[in-house]
Amino acid sequence: MTPVYLETSIWSHVLADDAPDARAAVLDLLKRVQAGEYEAVISAVVTDEFARAAPDIQPRLYDLLAQYQPGILEMTGEVEDLAAAYIRAGIVPPAKRDDARHVAAASVNEIPFVVSLNYRHLVNPRRKELFGHLNIVQGYASVRLVAPQELVNG
Predict the structure, then answer these.
(1) pTM
(2) Residue 26 included in any domain
(3) First to last CA, the chain
(4) Which distant-in-sequence residues (6+ apart) come within 8 Å of 147 by Cβ?
(5) Rounded Cα–Cα distance for residues 69 and 34 (Å)
(6) Element (H or E) spanning 15, and its range?
(7) Rounded mean pLDDT, 25-49
(8) Alpha-carbon distances of 151 from 9, 12, 53, rounded to whole Å
(9) Contact residues for 25 (Cβ-Cβ < 8 A; gap 6+)
(10) What is the spatial order of strands in the sheet that 113-115 belongs to?
């Protein structure tokens, strides 16, 4: 079973009626998680972001976690240091620290994939390259940042 880090945008797109294609891709991925093809993991960054969601959405997001029961990665000093390195290197703007923390949590914990629908700060060719390069320089394996359809369609 391949572990995959499911960044916050994945969970929120389950509820996204205005993005049917993205929602369908996420639901397909979650079906594969339930079938045992993938092992879903998150970090406290995901639940922190849930806590900042609209009050009417929060219970639905937490219900998804209860339904799919992802593993939860620890947010250590090592994770925070790597996230800070991404920001210092200009890979992620300081205002988007949580995006850096998602990638750092996966990298430090040797999770091979970060699955996201955040095309601006995570799943875009230039940032993928920069995250990968800095990981190598810092002594970590390169993590693959992918959209759900990229993961399931190989």
Answers:
(1) 0.95
(2) yes
(3) 15
(4) 25, 115, 116, 117, 119, 123
(5) 10
(6) none
(7) 95
(8) 15, 18, 26
(9) 147, 148, 149, 152
(10) 71-73, 38-43, 2-6, 113-115, 144-146
| 28: in domain | yes
State the average pLDDT over residues 51-60: 93
Q: Look at residue 55 and tell me whether its pLDDT is greater than 80.
A: yes
Which amino acid, one-letter code, is at 95? Answer: A
Residue 45's Cβ-count burial label (10 Å; 0-12, 13-18, 19+) is: buried
Q: Which amino acid would we find at residue 97?
A: R
Domain interval for residue 79 = 7-152
Type of residue numbered 19: A
Neighbours of 24 (CB within 10 A): 13
- DSSP H helices in 6-124: 8-13, 20-34, 44-51, 58-68, 77-88, 97-108
- Only one residue has tokens 């970590």, namely 140
CATH number for the domain including 125?
3.40.50.1010
Please choose, from the candidates 139, 130, 137, the residue with its C-alpha nearest in 3D space to the C-alpha of residue 108.
139
**Quick check: 68 and 99 in contact, CB under 8 A?**
no
